Amino acid sequence: MKRTSILVLSLGIVLSGCGTTPDSNAPAPATTTTSSAPASEQKTMSAEEVSRFKEYAPNLKGGPFITEAEIVNQNEAVITYADFATLKKTKPETGMIEADAKNYWESGDAINKTLMEEPIRLLKEFPELQKVKVTLNHGKKYTTEVDRATIEDYLKVNLAETKTDKDKWRNELVNKFFTKEERAKYIEKFVKAE
Q1: How far apart are the first and last CA of the chain?
Q2: Is the distance from CB of 66 to CB of 34 less than 8 angstroms?
Q3: Helix or strand run (H / E) with residue 78
Q4: Which of the four pLDDT bands, split at 50, 70 and 90, describes residue 36?
Q5: Per-residue confidence at 76, pLDDT binned at 50, 70, 90?
Q6: What number of other Cβ atoms are within 10 A of residue 138's Cβ?
Q7: What is the average pLDDT value for the chain, to the nearest integer?
Q8: Region (Disordered) spans which residues (predicted)?
Q9: Are the C-beta atoms of 173 and 162 separated by less than 8 Å?
Q10: What is the rounded distance in angstroms from the CA atom of residue 83 to the CA atom of residue 54?
Q11: In what order do the strands lie in the sheet with 131-138?
């Protein structure tokens, strides 16, 4: 019996030491996972939001001239406004004539309004959208590619907040920045013309 007790006690001591290390009782160090992609690139639009974007895009300024409105990488909008010749090839059913296109884009400040206001409007309307690229072809090829963080910094406003706060949208954006002078500054900074 004494021999069995010693054997059991010895076995217990041996087994209790198995798998332990001097630091086994110390808490495991916290591990953090970092991504090389910025947090803004990790947001994605749901299938419902992509579908809503497809319905929304034709209603943008210059909608009849839009030949491409796509979401790529689940959070970037690509909008292309065609010149008249391309528009007729892409949408032969359009009843538009060349004079209509010329009158539309050359009246007032239509090109600048479209290149500035519509990307901002899209970023406001779709909070998961992180980048907007617009190409507008009329005489020249105008391009702008803006991301949410840059535009929010430029405008000093959180665009997602303006979606639900119409007064903030009107007072801090529309009335302040959607003027001919402010559009000209924005175009100078964010638009390339070739």
Answers
A1: 98
A2: no
A3: strand 76-81
A4: very low
A5: very high
A6: 20
A7: 83
A8: 20-48
A9: yes
A10: 21
A11: 66-72, 76-81, 131-138, 140-147, 191-193
